[in-house]
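Hi there,

I know you've been waiting on this one. I reran it after we fixed the sequence typo, so this is the corrected version. Both the input and the resulting structure follow.
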Amino acid sequence: MSNLRPYSRPVHSRVDLHLPDGHRTSLVGANAGPDSPVAVLLPALGTPAGYYEPFLEALAEHGVSGFSADFPGQGGSRPLASVRNNYGYAVLAEVFVPHLLDAVAERHPARPITLVGHSLGGQVGLLALALTGRKVASVVLIGSGAPYWRAYPNRVGTLAKTQLVTLVAAARGHWPGHRFGFGGRQPRQLMREWSRFARTGRLDPEGTTRRAGRALAELEVPVLAIDLANDALAPRASVDRLLSLVPAADITQRHFDRATRHGQRPVDHFSWARDPTGIVDLVSEWVHSH
């Protein structure tokens, strides 16, 4: 979703980061104390890291230091995706995530880290651990699934829409998601690989140091996968498809359903991050137990 804006309340820390590939981003989050475990959140497609500030602050209140950062070219990160600034899953998994984990570990040494992935962030997080061999205490997936067209009720419509994305991105030099109301401005390679994932059900991007499918199949890590009620973007079948790619992982699945605190609307793919009541209990309990 391209129209999401960062939450207005300030977070407890904001640190500029310079990535090896030339992108600039900021680490945002809330520190729960010197002995607290750490959760590092990877955002959904086109969603700024600041959007998760209520969730990160709630984690800190539950004794977990929570941090996040904009993906390259997203939110406040620069430069933006363009004809010249083009990249795919490999850059996110093998450059961005290791650099982010190093930055957090440098500032909070000797603390166990749980990688939290929302939507695309879950795909990238699993891929990063599989390809790089980085070790974390555990993984939490929230509303994170495979965009495989067979996992959605409207199969034909889903297939058509996901394949249209790569055609538009190829023609424009990038995906102008801010104009279509989906995904924000994205590099054409990432969307080409995402569209192929949607068509084939396999996450096997270009330019990785290892064969992604085999690396994912060998990944051994405790995973808590939370599927959300009213989540049209990552229904249970989509979550199950993503989990099938990591058969060696120790997987725990939970379904989360509740109305928001003010009774305005049920939880869905995005609303949990603004009002993390309930879901923060699931996540913090998991982090502390691992």
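Quick highlight: The mean pLDDT is 92.

Best,
R. S.
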